[in-house]
Amino acid sequence: MSSSKDKLLDGKKILERQLYWLEIAYQDALIVGIRKSYNVEEFGKLTILCGRYSRSVNFLIRRVFRDLDEFEFEDRTTLIDVIEHAYNRYLFENIDEVRMIKDVKNRVVDEYIDDNLVLIFNDILEYTQPLIEIIDKTIKYIDKIE
Fold it and tell me: How far is CA 80 from CA 63, 85, 123, 135, in A?
């Protein structure tokens, strides 16, 4: 059985890969930008970003933040508490922004119709950069533990 530190370090490696792919998808989507309509290639680039964004948010909050709590002996509690603990670690400055990042992820996951997904692209582009910054701070925080 692996220790909580091993689990955290494994999570960090995966988070680094998530960040790598998220940044690539973000750069591709920025080139496309927000438009009234998209061709197939443009739509594909934005939906790839939606998927990368959603997986990154899920992994960061549900896995890495929880692993940090376990490693630092925080009680295993609600997702709200996990986010609060991450805030107290100074992994981000604005807790409401993290809630918005999570809410946008939930909207992406709940959309099944392409036309509705188009309405989310602007929010995804707005909140991806703050997400990248939070992931980067989290990786640096874990680096200090190593």
Answer: 14, 9, 22, 18
The secondary structure element, H or E, covering residue 102 is helix 95-110
CB contact at 8 A, 86 and 97: no
- Report the C-alpha gap between 66 and 44 in whole angstroms: 32
Task: Give the whole-angstrom CA distance, residue 55 versus residue 72.
Answer: 24
Q: Rounded distance, CA 4 to CA 69, Å?
A: 10
Nearest to 104 by CA among 52, 64, 54, 59: 54
Taking only the tens of pLDDT, the chain with its 146 residues reads: 468 899 999 999 999 999 999 999 999 999 999 988 899 999 999 999 999 999 999 999 999 999 999 998 877 678 889 999 999 999 999 999 999 999 999 988 887 666 677 888 999 999 999 999 999 999 999 999 87
Distance separating alpha carbons of residues 47 and 89, to the nearest angstrom: 32
Angle, nearest 10°, between helix axes 95-110 and 40-58?
130
pTM summary value:
0.91
Count of other CB atoms within 10 angstroms of residue 6: 12
